[in-house]
Amino acid sequence: RRAAMAVLLLLVLVASAAQAHLVARSASALQPGVVRRPLGARCAAVLEGAPSSTAAERAAVAAEIDPGEVAGLRVLKYPHQLLRAPNEEVAAFDAELAELSRRMFRLMYASKGVGLAAPQVGINKRLLVFNPEGDEKAFRTEVVMVNPKIVARSEGTELDDEGCLSFPGFGAQVVRAKWVKVKAFNLKGNPFNKKYTGWDARIFQHEYDHLDGTLYVDRLTDEERQIVQTDLDRLVALHGPGGAV
C-alpha cells in the first residue's frame, strides 16, 4: 500500500512539473525575445551592479515614486502634449525663476529622481535641474542650468540603462556621448561653461533632450522599443493618446 501511494505521489509531482513547463512556454510564446528590464533611477541612470556604477549611482537605483503634487508642481506623464511642445529661452532671471528651480528640486527629490526639466512640469522654458547624488542633503552637487547649449560632444558613446519620471514603471538602454561640453546661464544670468563626463553627462543629455521636445524613448533601437512597447501602450491608455510616439 505504501508503495502504491509513493507511486501516486510521484505521478502527481511529474504532472505538476509538466503543467508548469507548458505554462512557461505559453507565456514566453506570447512575446518572443521580450524581456522586461529592471528599473533605474529617474531621470537618467545605470543599472545596479553595472561595472561603471559608483556607490552613489547604485544607491540611486530604485523604483520611482509618484508623489502627486509637490510645491504646486506635478510630473507630466507620457504622452502629455507639453512634453513635445517647443520650449522658449528664459528671458527674466528673477526671484520667480529661482523659486521655480527650488520647487522643481523638491518635486524631483520627492519622486526619487536625479533630474528634472521644466517641460516635465508643464512649463515650456529652457530650464533644467539635476543632482547626480539624488539626495537633497547633498545640496552642494545640485545643478541649475538656464538656456543650456551643447557646444561639443565626444565621438565615443556609451550604452546604459535610463528611466524617466514621465515614463513610470520601466527603463531602457540608450546610447549617449561619453562627454559633453556645455555653456549655460546660472540663476543670476551669469554665463558659465562646463564639461560633463560619465553619469553626469548622461543625466545632462537626458534632461537637455527634454528641452528640445525629445524623449528618451525616441533614442531606442527597434529591439529596445519592442521591449517597452507594452509599457508605452499602457501609459497611452492611462493618460490619453495626445503626443504618442
Write structural notes for this entry.
The protein is α+β, with helices and mostly antiparallel strands and 245 residues long. It contains five helices and seven strands. Strand 6 (179-185) and strand 7 form a beta hairpin. The N and C termini lie far apart (66 Å). The model is unreliable at 17-41 and 44-62 (pLDDT under 50).
Give the CA-CA distance, first to last residue.
66 Å
Strand portion? 15-25%
The H-and-E topology, N to C, reads as: HHHEEEEEEEHH
| Total helical segments | 5
| Arithmetic mean of pLDDT | 82
**Coarse morphology:** globular
Strand order of the largest sheet: 1-2-3-6-7
Structural class designation: alpha+beta
Model regions low in confidence, pLDDT < 50 over at least 5 residues: 17-41, 44-62
Radius of gyration: 22 Å
Overall strand count? 7
- The percent of residues in helical segments reads 25-40%
Largest sheet: 5 strands, antiparallel
